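May I ask for whichever protein you like with its backbone structure tokens?
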Amino acid sequence: MERIKSFFQSLKIGTKLSFGIVSMIVLVMAVLLTTIINSYRENLIANSQDLMIASIKNVGQSTEADILATAQMVRTTAISQASGLFGDREGTIEQIKSGMEAFPGCFGIAINYEPDADGQDEAYRGDTVHTIDGRFLPFYHWKDGLKREEMVPSKSIQTAKGWYQVPKKNALEMLRGRNVTDLMYYSDVYLTRGVPTVSIVHPIIRDREFKGVVSVDMSMINAQADLKRLKPYATALPFLVGEKGTILAGELFGQAKVGSSVYKEPGYSDAFFRFFKEHKGGMLEEKRASDGKEIYYVFSLLPTTGMVVGLAVEKEEIIAPINALIAKISVGAVVALILCLAVVWLVARRIVVRPVNNIMSLFSEIGIGNFDARAEVMSRDELGIMAESLNAMLDNTLSLIQSREERDAIQGSVMKLLTEISGLTEGDLTVRAEVTEDMTGAIADSFNLMAEQIGQVVREVKAAAGRVNDTSGEVHESTEKLAQTSTLQAEQIASAIADIRGMADAIRQVAERAVHSASVSEQSTASAREGADAVSKTNASMSAIRENVQETARAIKRLGESSQEIGNIVQIIGDIADRTSILALNASIQAAMAGDAGRGFAVVAEEVQRLAERSTNSTKQIDTLVKNIQGEITEAGASMDASIQRVVEGSKRADDAHAKLEEIREVSGELAELIGGISRTSEDQARESEKITQSMEAIGTISSDTSEASLATAARMDEMEETALAMISSIAAFKVDAV
């Protein structure tokens, strides 16, 4: 350390000044170059990471939008079932066909009623579009549009877990007044023919009763295709993992691992698995166990289904081109720095070192007695003025030197002057030469004045450097706070932009689904109107039947009255037969009393007796028949009265059904108007959301620019502070009097 100090003190003042200037420039350039390169490198890496995250989020948002749009279709179908299409089985099948055409990505759409929920199971028993017990279960495949041949028995529906029982449980909980946030049910993602699939189910609730469910098996073939197309880098490996860790698609684990659990994959860290267990998005950097390469993993969560979309990229692919570019920039910067140093060194030598050496050479010549030597005037600054003053002094001195003694005295004075000012060459600006009355006094006075002026300049430079250091520190703190605030603002604005963009997409989907819902509602209104007309015709037919039944009842009543009259007549005939029998008996008695004369009359009396008995028997038979007829007439009358009552009740029910259908038609009309209003409002909101998104993006750009400018300013303040410290350190070589 002492050697270095001694070496530094032995250097000439010109060399010290050149070294100080060059060192300060090298320090500033090195700090500036390092800051710029590091900042540029970090920005390039951040841009690459943002590209990966944006690519994953685009796939996730697109998949999430498809799921929500399909869920809206399921909800609309369930509402139409609950209002107008419930029980209209053929109309429901047509509705399902329309849904399949509108959503070709679905594997199938199914509507499942509770057993005999619409009272038509018996009528449809054995139909190919229903279960074997008449249960309604239309189901269409997405591939060929044909109805399913193997129907699910009702018992398996009743015992099914998940897709049927969970929505049913939620619906019953809601009907009991429990707090149910959403009736929509999303199953765990599973594989169907190698394609990730999710079942979306919504219950059918009609008149505050659970009637069945609407379910859709939605394929994620679009997400699978998006993953295959996702190739922002050559080493990029996308993947799709379910909520419970099931590998669904992607190249990271390989096609052979599709369907297995990600937790069984060897070579991954706990942090890697934690992303799937905690269901959160983000970025992870770690080494791959198979080859030891650094890998960037990016994750994006799909909140509706709990799936995780991810992307793995080798860090080397991202860093290598950045390092190559930075290496080129560094080489160019070093070459520029060397050229700059060479120029600065040459300029410093020409402006400072050469004039100082010129003056010192003059003093050396004077020291050996050469008073003919003169200093070369190289500039018009203080050193140039000093050289002119020395030349003038030497001119005056030569005219005054008369003898050798005078020259010796002058030489001694000059040597003394050189000894006194030797500390100045080492940077000690506090030394002063003794001002004498001889000819060297003017030189000493000039040197003292020069040292005082240079000392004043050094003190001012020190003070200025100190103020610059303090000010740069304060500005650095303020700039850092501004940069932090701007960065936070930019992040918040970026998050708001993403939320607004998602909201705009959701609003656009709602608008599209609202248009479809309006069409469905109009169909429901038309169906309700046709149903009301049919019920009106049915009611008219029931009225005609009631009149015919009443007329038949009156005829039966008249028939009963006629049979009553027949009974009266039969009773009279019976009385006549009894009296005839008595008369025949009396006649027989009288004939017997008459003897032979009355024998012929006795024969006639016997015949009359037999006729009377036969009449009595016939009368009894007729009476029995009449009574049977009267009983049957009574039963027929009661049956007709019951039929009339049922016809009346049927008419009332038909009237009630007509009123309900009218209410359904009115509600469907109002629903169509509301949905139309929702569609128009959603379109307006979508346009406004686009404007808001554009405004927020502009604000985000401004905030990003402000943040970058603040960071750049903070970096410049750091450099300025370091430059001021370096300047203070360089000037510290000069010793001056305290102020």
Notes: The domain at 14-352 is CATH 3.30.450.20 (Beta-Lactamase). The longest strand covers residues 195-206. The chain has twelve helices and eleven strands.
